[in-house]
Design a protein that fits this description.
- The chain is globular.
- The longest helix is centred in the middle third of the chain and has 25 residues.
- Strands 4-3-2-1-5-6 form a 6-stranded mixed beta sheet, sandwiched between helices. A 5-stranded antiparallel beta sheet has the order 14-13-15-16-17.
- Helix 7 crosses helix 8.
- The protein is α+β, with helices and mostly antiparallel strands.
- It folds into 2 domains: about 140 residues, Creatine Amidinohydrolase, Chain A, domain 1, CATH 3.40.350.10; about 220 residues, Creatinase/methionine aminopeptidase superfamily (Creatine Amidinohydrolase, Alpha-Beta Complex), CATH 3.90.230.
- Strand 2 and strand 3 form a beta hairpin.
Amino acid sequence: MYLEPPTSTPESEIRSRIRATQEALAASGSDVLVGYADCWRTANVRYYTDFRPVDGVHGIAQAVVVVPRSGDPLLFAGDGCVDYARSETLFDVDTLDALPGSLARLRAGGSEQFVLAGVEQIPVGLHAAITDAVAPAQLRPTDLLARLKAVKSPWEVEQLRRAARLTDLAMEAVREVVQGGRAVTEREVAMAADVAMIQAGADTPAYLSMVQAGARSAFSLALPTNRVIEAGDLVLTDIGARYGNYVADGGRGFVFGPASDQVRDIVETAADAVEAGLAAARPGISASELNAVVAGVLLERGYGPFSGEARGRGTGHGTGMDPEEEMPWIGPTNEALIESGSVFTLKATINVPEVGGLRTERIVHLADSGLETLDFFPMRNYW
């Protein structure tokens, strides 16, 4: 299977997002949205342009979008990236050095309420420069953009279906190489997944692929090594594909060879927890209520001490242009209602020291008509 290369974001999508942002600014009493993104977490800027910052130093990994309540946005990119950014953007683009002056002019023109999306990731120096430029007005953090990103258009959902399909194909390649009759290492398994998804049409992996076998699978998050996968190993994989602007976040585990009763129980419990969440999810359910369903299975089966999700980390998160987006966060303290149109993961991680673990994850689209699963690779894998 090969997916055709992704198309550019339709102009109608971009214009609709700009209008929605300006309407949200007006409704909140804010004048200007400042959105920060970098080459690792791109969505706050890529929501408005197909430009993506490139990895590097001296500012080239950073970008800022400025959306006033009326008029066109402005994009600011690192020096050396501006021509590329202009080729991918519907509105004016300038260098990051020009950002403070542009913000100061907006302030002088009467803008008083500036809000910042991306406060958790923006560098201290850039944050200080923006704060100084808008003074004496204050720069306040906002979740306005996170709320807009959380609800996907039909076009966005289709991009995510394709990213999820590529992730399924990567897992099929993992199964083939593991069952291929020769000993393979964690690194070889991760490489097989990466090659398969790219050959099938992915731009890149969504993030560095994780493969952890045996006792190493008890690490919740780790990168692959030269450890050989052995009979009886429980193997954690967390693999996702990037297709155009959109990514899939896929956690799966498998047992290679005979499974002990303890290992089998880990696999079955994680799958049961996610399936309980899938059955409960509906538009209008609160994030905390949905979290309680998934975490409840983990706690009932005795995995509270061995699961970050059961201890309050949250059993799901938004996904879209970034593997993990701010909303909806499916967590115990989030009373917000999950809106129709949201795309998110439901997940259950279990990590038992010296035994192993896995992360079982599904990507779903919550629609008025019900829950749509975007990825389909099995959650119970005994190879």
